[in-house]
Specification:
123 residues; mainly beta; Immunoglobulin-like; three-stranded mixed β-sheet; 2 helices; elongated
Length: 123
């Protein structure tokens, strides 16, 4: 065994004689920090939309969204919010209830991710 000089740290000698290596702490690794949590609309790429009937004829509308009758709204009222896909083109038709007559011109809205809005028709 080699001789120790007065510059050899005592703690290193004790660790080495116990079979341990310098730098081992015995603590579990620390996880890398993560970014902020995603909101539901970010994770699902969605938006919120409602519909308003601003009828000047005092008639009820059916809202046809992407070919399906989504909701019926009476004059002066606004529907509840609907969660829809963002970033894609949709088809929207406001139709007078119990007819095939459109109350307003059909449209093709594309909603931004996490946006909230109301689309209205005055017909």
């Amino acid at each position: 065994m080699s001789r120790l000089n007065n510059k050899t740290p005592l703690f290193f000698i004790l660790l080495a004689s116990a079979g341990m290596t310098v730098g081992t702490t015995g603590c579990p690794p620390v996880d890398a920090p993560t970014g902020p949590e995603q909101t539901a609309c970010e994770a699902n790429n969605s938006a919120q939309i409602s519909f308003r009937n601003n009828s000047n004829t005092n008639r009820t509308y059916n809202v046809i969204w992407d070919g399906s009758n989504l909701v019926t709204i009476t004059p002066g009222s606004t529907s509840r919010q609907f969660t829809v896909a963002a970033g894609v083109q949709h088809t929207l038709v406001f139709r007078f209830t119990n007819t095939n007559t459109n109350a307003c011109n059909p449209s093709t809205p594309t909603l931004s991710q996490c946006s909230t809005g109301t689309i209205s028709c005055t017909g």
